[in-house]
Amino acid sequence: MPYVYADLVLVVNLVMNYFLLSLTAALTQARSMPWRLGAGSLLGGLYALAVIAAPFPFLTLPIVKIFISLAMVVIAFGPGPWQNLLSRLACFYLLSFLTGGAALSLLYSGAISPGSVPWWSLPAAAAVSLSVVYLVWNYRRQYRWQRENRVKVRLRFGSAWVEVPALVDTGNQLWEPLSNRPVIILENKALSGILPPEVEALCRQERMDWGGLASISNPEWAGRCRLVPFSGLGIKRGLLLGLRPDEVSLFVDGKWVGGQPALVGLVNQELGCGGNYRALVPPDLFVCGDAG
């Protein structure tokens, strides 16, 4: 007859519950205190101990398990609005299933023999869960950052207007040295139908040079074009084709506001995945004032 050590059951469940509640707090951005997390974890540990030690079949009923897990979440984070409570409870369940699934995968892969659970199995399952949670959290953080820093940009070239979704990029520190203007990085396809054929052909060149600018016969567009020096990954000294728009506007907080004079640097590549943004806007572009 196998023996179960009550202190070991309590300690293991206490540690794992604290781990799961801490991850729940991180993913749902819920505020808590260590003692609250510890109290919720202790309740779960005592429940696991009671299931093993006490001969009460009702303890294993699904409704009882749901009530205990709900009580653990309430103790750890407080009741709060019911929407927050449900999201935290769902996250706690998801993490629990993920950790349990990782432990089962170790069992079925042969790393753990049935009837014998080594001490390292739970830390290994927790490490797998933590890795998955980190990937999800990192993706969510990047998605939220892009959503919060996304704007619309409207550019005017003569009588032609173009409007594109853009991302405010703090890493875009590109300035045109002669005019001392910030540079908006834009996909050249966004100006399709606006650029004259000779400028479109120039955009498709892999390497820019001053001779290309001299070949532009249209005087209006020849006066708009610049070559902007830049450096990037794998490119120490490159040249970017820049265009001077007549007007730059940004859609921020529900209204169009004017941006300071800028150049548009054209790149022959897609900037955002799936076209969710087509331009990179430097933070220095923002100025106060309505654009209409």
Characterize the overall form: elongated
In total, the number of strands is 11
Count every helix, treating DSSP H or I runs of 4 or more residues as helices: 8
As a whole number of angstroms, the C-alpha radius of gyration is 29 Å
What's the story with the biggest beta sheet? 11 strands, mixed
* Helical/strand content category: alpha+beta
**H-E order:** HHHHHEEEEHHHEEEEEEE
Number of domains: 2
Briefly summarize what is shown.
With 292 residues, the chain is of the alpha+beta class. The chain contains eight helices and eleven strands.
Structure description:
- By secondary structure, this protein is an alpha+beta fold.
- It folds into 2 domains: 6-147; 150-290, Cathepsin D, subunit A, domain 1.
- Helix content is 45%, strand content 23%.
- The protein contains 8 helices and 11 strands.
- The protein has helices at 6-28, 34-53, 62-77, 82-108, 121-148, 197-203, 210-214, 219-224; strands at residues 150-157, 160-168, 175-176, 181-187, 225-232, 235-243, 247-252, 255-259, 263-267, 279-281, 286-290.
- Strands 1, 2, 3, 4, 5, 6, 7, 8, 9, 10 and 11 form an 11-stranded mixed β-sheet that branches.
- Helix 4 (82-108) packs across helix 5 (121-148).
- The longest helix is centred in the middle third of the chain and has 28 residues, at 121-148.
- The protein is elongated, with a radius of gyration of 29 Å.
- The termini are far apart.
- Mean pLDDT is 76; it is low at 110-115 and 288-292.
